[in-house]
Amino acid sequence: MLRPRIRIPRAGALLRRTTLFTRSQHSVPILDQFHYNDGVPGLLSPAGFSTAWTEYMKHVVNKLNMMTAGTDYEQQTPLTILKNAARDPSQAAVFNYASMSHNNHFFFNQMVNLRNLYEQKAQARPSGAQGEEEIQLEASETRIPPKLKQELERNFSSIETLRREFLTTALGMFGPGFVWLVRNANMQDLRILTTYLAGSPYTAAHWRRQGVDFNTMSADRGTVNAFLERSQTGAGYSGGRFNPQAPGGTDVIPLLCVNTWEHVWLTDYGIAGKGDYIQQWWETIDWDKVESLAFSEQQDNLR
Q1: Which of 9, 72, 95, 291 shows a CA-CA span of 20 to 30 A to 125?
Q2: Would you give the distance in Å from CA 298 to the centre of its chain?
Q3: Which structural domain range is residue 147 located in?
């Protein structure tokens, strides 16, 4: 399927680094590739970026700091916190804020600044070329490194199939969450995975069982006994014994994700604009970062 190539207008100045918000031990990470004055070129306006990144991350980090102050979690990264808190039902709130902090950062960090690519292409233009010529950026899939492209095509038959699967999966989620591209840590297989709300794809977080859309799940087991049973299983207890492995958990390595929480896309795309948002997100993927995770030799740190 042929699609129009992305066109990015010239930027008058280089992008600057984002401001670091600090409070207690945890702080909002710096996104070197984006600046609040420019948003995410091709995806989010400055106002949309402010809501989805600046304001939201400041909120979840501040909440995480308040909940972890004076505890062992205070010195841990959000990724470590979500893994450690996943087994304890009483730490659900800590898990949620740690997981959302990590997930949202992962989402933004796997995107490329299209304006920077535009500037690089403009600088590489042969001297003497017409200044009025419109510079165009190729579609996202043309930037996929050959080795990664081969793996994606092996698992999904084509890049277009992968793109459509991301789109249809995200559109099929009635509730908010994330759609992930993950690698099975025990083999080369790549798969699409959904997590709802603050759910996490990391192996240690599978205790939370957040791969179900609770907006469509039956509520016929709302008894106290069922709640206690779920709480014990979430903590790792089954049949009076502690099980260090999450039931049904699969060891996966996340490579890429799209955030489907409404606050990310509502400002720029409106109530019915979720599909347009996802299609534009596809054009901003930093495939070099995806490849570095897919073939990393330090994958144990990513689980």
Answers
A1: 291
A2: 20
A3: 46-123+134-302
